[in-house]
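CO-FOLDING WORKSHEET

Operator: S.A.
Ligand of interest: guanosine-5'-triphosphate
Run index: 569
Mode: holo prediction, single chain
Checklist:
[x] sequence pasted
[x] SMILES validated
[ ] output reviewed
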Amino acid sequence: MHGNLSGLRPAQLKSLGNLYRRRIEPGRVGSPELARNLAELSNDVRREVSVLIDRRGRVISVSVADAKAAELPEVRQGENRLAGFHLLHAHPRGGALSKGDLSTLFLKRLDAVSAIEVRNEGQPGLVHTAHLTPPGTVGEEEDWRILPPVPAFQIDEFDLGAQVSALEEEIARAASTREAKKDRERALLVQIDQGEFDAEERLEELGELARTAGAEVVYKELIYRRNLKPGTLVGAGKLEELTGRAYHLDADLLIFGQELGPAQAREIEAATGLKVIDRTQLILDIFALHAQGVESRLQVELAQLRYMKPRLLGAGAALSRIGGGGGSAGGGAIGTRGPGETKLELDRRRINDRLAFLEKQLEGVAQRREERRKSRERNDVPVVSIVGYTNAGKSTLLNAFTHAAEEPRRVLAENKLFATLRPTSRQGYLEGIGPVVLTDTVGFIRDLPKDLTRAFRSTLEEIGDADVLLHVVDAAGPGADTRLDAVNRILEELGFVDMPTVVALNKADAADPETLARERERTEGIPVSALRNIGLADLKEALADAIGQVQRQELARQEEVRALAAEWH
Ligand SMILES: Nc1nc2c(ncn2[C@@H]2O[C@H](COP(=O)(O)OP(=O)(O)OP(=O)(O)O)[C@@H](O)[C@H]2O)c(=O)[nH]1
Ligand SMILES: [Mg+2]
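OUTPUT RECEIVED:
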């Protein structure tokens, strides 16, 4: 027996215990006799009394509590089933199904919930029953259907068994059509707005990230919260609402726009029954999908493991949560994909070994890269590093600049975030300068996850080798200025301050003229379209000027050194 039993007399406890002996006809809500018992008892103890009945008509649990607090076994019958039992309880003060009753029905996937109104003298009055509606119900329909109330002596007339079978069939049918269509994972997106000016843009960007990771975004919401709840960030009520939405939109993935702590993710997952991933996990997942070549794969795996390590510690549940997916970059569920061979199913001890191994491997790769860099330096060819926000058009611009329109010289450019992870250098030519090396590299994003920055350190450091930076901005998308600032902030964090920079306002063909003019004024950038070959001559001229200036400064410096040396001799 469960619930608040304090102050109950032995006789009352005995009567409650006797409820376990009651059996009803399978597939019915209850029997008139059981309804009478419950009403009497509830009246007697002046509290709600609940019984849980399984599909064979047996009472499996008795609680002196309302529906929300009633003891429910923690069984999940699989995605396509209901819980396999229904809740019957008595309201000592009368009244129909409460909000708590209905949300328990929904969240616990009960077969049904029924409330017996208790009249004076403990007589059972009307019985109110509700059951779930099929998933995918849209429009005005609620998550549940409330049946017309019946008097207690007719409680056994409703065919609950038939209703449950029909509903389960419906749920299974929806699931199998979805399976057959091989749909992409359907995701709900949530961005918490704490008053940031770019909250809207962040939600938009989260959508782009989700799309790139292969999810179908079926719902997005900006949730304003001045103060975050420690456990669930948004609070239990909001999570209930999201659970309902997910059910009707047939989604099972919930993506948060902010990084979730290990305990938070687990708590939100437990409350919603959905797979929960955060923005960092999503970005890591995209990197895992796009990683090609030894170095990028090592880097991505390192970043993933570092992110996961604290999330694996001390939690069996978390381990299965993260380890569930496939190991290949192509397959597997979003948030669980890993690069290369390694499945992300390592235990705590092996993680440390693997981390040490990856770090060592990367050191080796970085060293070889360093040697290559040195030999290039000796060549004295000026280097231009193309930097910018992800999807700004860096790779497209490199292709346009180096006339590398054909395979195999063409570098991959596509409408996906983080298409490029590996720095690629191409030889180009600038009038008045001669041959130059142009290097395309991994794109930036605001709040770049720290684990990624660390893992990609050697790749990012190469940016600093450039004589001139070519900062590519997508001038067509919303918030060009925020993205430009975000890139500058990251460059600063990486220690690249005061590097000679030329700004290219790309996608000018698609940009709104007003925005373009404003950005031009603000950044002294040069409008171009890498895709349509517009403005490239101007851009080349600006680059040549910048390189020329760097070279003149370098000459002057060498001159000074020579003069100093001459003085000393
Ligand atoms: N309209 C328009 N689209 C462009 C232009 N330049 C690039 N794009 C498109 O923008 C998308 C991203 O281009 P990429 O060159 O892959 O961008 P990136 O900066 O290398 O992106 P990441 O490597 O993912 O960081 C592609 O779909 C391009 O076709 C342009 O001048 N105008
Ligand atoms: Mg690229």
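REVIEW:
The longest strand covers residues 124-132.
The first helix runs from residue 10 to 18.
[x] output reviewed
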